[in-house]
Amino acid sequence: MYKLYEAVPKSQANLYGQRAIEESENPFFDGPCLLCISAGGIHFDKNVFGTTKQGMEMARMRVRGHRNAGFCLKDFPIKFLSMKLDSKSQDRKMTEDERIDTFATQYLLPLISSNGTKIDSTQAMKNMRNVNIMSYCDGTLVVQSIEKNLLNKMHELGYTDEECKKIQSQMCMFPIATDRLTGTQKSTCISFKDINDSEVSDNITLEECKKVSESAIGESVFLYSKNEIAYLFKGDGEHSLKKYKHSGKAMSACLSSALSKALENSILNSQGESFVPITSRTTYC
Fold this sequence. Notes:
The chain is α/β, with parallel strands linked by helices.
């Protein structure tokens, strides 16, 4: 299955700043998390952990070589997680659907159920606010599979269609440089992509290109659905996650702002008794 790792301060016990999540732990149940998923690099440590570092920097965390807002990992109320394929041979024999199902059952099903039955839908929504996912390129396919699996699980538990919709909307996803979106996400989804990137441009319409090109700053926002917003910009065409930290006139600042607002909302809901839901509009605006 997929194994989770948490970014931690480097120490003698964690020389690389990554700690494997134990089988008995569930970081998503314990509190707010940002899971960072690389582009097909789930099999390779460098890509997996490097993507998480990029996500931390986008969230304005202090990382090596960049102070940003000065927030450090020690005692910070957000867990920054990486995800990669377990090296156990039996796990490598699993199908992708089996890995996703095992992952969702172990880590996310406890957010929406107790002892095999559904819980109060508002509580399930609040629990789901612990789940924020940043994905790069085809890593978005993993997030979409997780969403689909969770919706199936909610229906099996007996949640109504409306309850499923509300609960899933409280999982936030931030796909970057991907052509996998179709405007049908049930999670709150804010994506970012360069219209000149040939690896994603097939998923961009002529009308969208025209609007971006005619914009004074070469950037524009598109509302695909109540849950889904896309931020498109006219960049240099390079297919790279790193460039999203500094490219464009306002894009990198908007990405950092949206990600930070989602995490702030997660912290607010984890520390208070009341529930403050999130939407794509409140996250972006």
